[in-house]
Amino acid sequence: MSTCTTHVDHPHTHGPDCGHVAVVHGDHTDYIHDGHAHREHDGHWDECELPHVVAEDHGDHLHGPDCGHETIQHGDHVDYLHDGHRHAAHGDHYDEH
User: Fold this and answer.
1) Cα angle vertex 82, ends 80, 57, to 5°?
2) In whole angstroms, how large is the CA radius of gyration of the chain?
3) Same domain, 28 and 59
4) Is the confidence at residue 85, as pLDDT, over 80?
5) What number is the average pLDDT over the span 76-93?
């Protein structure tokens, strides 16, 4: 389950052309913004931390500067946008965000 808090005074309206990475998340779209996800909810925006779970096996693929996946700064590390979700290196595997 995601943890969300209301983002107060959010003057920016997220949408297809807002410049933030959009990730389909179940029945809604999250917009990656300043290391967290924004989700429209009842006329306001929630800030959500998405749960971290182990991603599918990548075989020999390693995410990095030349892997071909879009990068997203997330706190002290970089996530890689992969098939509509984010992957972050964690030990010997990747977490899905």
Assistant:
1) 100
2) 14
3) no
4) no
5) 82
**pLDDT tens readout for residues 15-42:** 888 877 777 777 888 887 766 788 887 8
Euclidean distance between the first and the last CA atom of the chain, given in angstroms as a whole number: 12
pLDDT over 70 percentage in the chain: 82
Kindly state whether residues 45 and 67 are assigned to the same domain: no
Distance CA 44, CA 93 (A): 35
- Domain count of the fold of the chain: 2
- Domain with 79, as residue range(s), is 53-96
Same domain, 58 and 44: no
Same domain, 27 and 14: yes
Q: If DSSP states are collapsed to H, E and C, what string results for 12-77?
A: CCCCCCCCCCEEEECCEEEEEECCEEEEEECCEEEEEECCCEECCCCCCCCCCCCCCCCEEEECCE
